[in-house]
Amino acid sequence: MAMWLTHRRPLQRPGVTLLWAVGGFGTSIIVFGLSDWFWLSLLALFSTGVFDNVSVVVRQSLVQILTPDSLRGRVTAVNQIFIGSSNEIGTLRAGLMSAVVGPVAAVVWGGLGTIAVALCVARFLPQLRGTPALDKLKPD
User: Fold this and answer.
1) d(CA 34, CA 104)
2) Which of 42, 58, 78, 88 is the most buried (most CB within 10 A)?
3) For residue 101, what pLDDT is reported?
4) How far is the C-alpha of 110 from the C-alpha of 98, rounded, in Å?
5) Could you say which DSSP state residue 7 is in?
6) Number of domains observed in the structure of the chain
7) Is residue 3 one of the residues assigned to a domain?
């Protein structure tokens, strides 16, 4: 996915792409959680990687492009703290939920939560959906 993204023109609707990528990630997680077939599970996990890569590229591009030069180091540092801790926090959430409701329900609820976050962001941050093309963005 990363190779494909680097060899195409810049995303024209990065905010919408980000929301769809997060929703697709959540959907893939749900499919993985419910699947009893090896190949479907493998395809679902492959899809999570594809969607996650798109999401990372869009988020990192927006941070780098929209942050003023004088703040870029600090903003990137805070961003990296959240990114660096997100996997561990997610693992804690999944482990605790697995202990309470079982692994399948924990995975499915995690996917549903991911989709809910994407829908809430789309609803309450409409300016994200209107973000101009990546090659047209400039810091304020």
Assistant:
1) 7
2) 58
3) 96
4) 11
5) T
6) 1
7) no
